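**Folding the chain**
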Amino acid sequence: NGKKNGATAKGSKGKGGKLSTNGTNGAAKAKPEGVVDATKTTSKSLSTTTLFACGLVALLSFGAGVFTPPLLSYVNHQDGSGRKLSTASTSRSTVPEIDGCDDLLDQYLHDEVQTGMDVICVSKNWTLSLYQGASWARPPMQASMDLAQGELWPTLRDTLHNSLNLGSRRPINQAWALFTRGGERIGDEETELMDDNELREVVSSSRLLVVMGGGQWLWPGVRIGFKRTVDLSYLPGTNKTLEKRSAILETLSLYPLVVAVEGFLAPEECDHIQDRAGPSLRYSEVTLQDKDKGRPSSDFRTSQSTFLKSRKDPTLTGIDERTAALVRMPVSHQEQVQVLRYGYTEKYSAHMDYFNPSTYKNDKHTLRLIENGKKNRQATVFWYLTTVESGGHTVFPRFGKAPQPSDFNDCTKGLLVKPERGKVIIFYSMTFAGALDVFSLHGACPVKEGVKWAANKWVWNKPMKWQ
């Protein structure tokens, strides 16, 4: 198959993001085949009587000492947001008690074991309940931290490293990292020093922590139809605060991990991208694997495309920053925005967005780009700029761990996402463990009626010099 071609631009190095949010879940189920749409959520208001009753129950519970975790979360709600941690060490102060996180587990634990993702529930006196594989299928392990030994961060880091056997399963060239429940990067296995007081504040606010074996954040899918609301106001890797806004994520697929995003793009932004891209559109090229060398790109891809620089364009710069907030990785991890136009019958055969070193052994340029496997595309943030009357779906043929298809142009099987103006999806090319995800195979089905405009951001697992 052809691979999507990259772009060259300039940028700077950055660090991980820092914002925690609570999530909400839904019970809707996605169809194994056919069109998948993001479902709007509605909020329910509490009546005065309900609030009075909850307050009375809370008062009585407090007196009896029988707060349940869900009720405690409702009465004493925390948004889980934290501050960026410094690397300076300070003197130890009293370790705060933490209320546990039983009320949060259903937003992070899966039915099946998720290799490379672990969930840590922190309770009183920093006792840790470790859910290895972020799954209900495994009973939690208990670990107690020896807070008398040295500084807090090395104690927490080494406890997780040893209890979860993180060193024995780490993918080559990847360092595991610890995050708050909302994707705020706390530190990784190579972090040496951290301010004790700030670490306490972040952990006590988050209560639930997440280890990502691949070192970068992926939104946990939990189950098909699961929804969570995420805050997009913090720009990872900086101290800049963006305009206050949120988005709703809905899980469309667990294998591969695909989530729909509602509330990300405005109609005028869709128009702006098309207007800027129009004059520079050219028929698309692909980066051919070794086995496909010599074949024309049109064998795989018949769309038109272009890359847009964000520099001196406030609209694109704003979308770049919003994308960083969405995926919880700095702007320096992004390629330039690619804009696509599909006319009648135009398509892109099923392909991967990542570059597998084993299929590019004779392509020295690509091997240098990915540093022989150290770097790769982790996520694709895909924007639909127009609604297509018929056809033009994005297809994921290996949805639900389906076998490799024999026909890479078959749009009758798998997960289908209908192109609708303003819709956004994220799909991940790498797993929680940092491995290449073979189930992320995807394609663009032929347009049968209308014109499909789309755009995407490729986000890498490490900083690149694209911007």
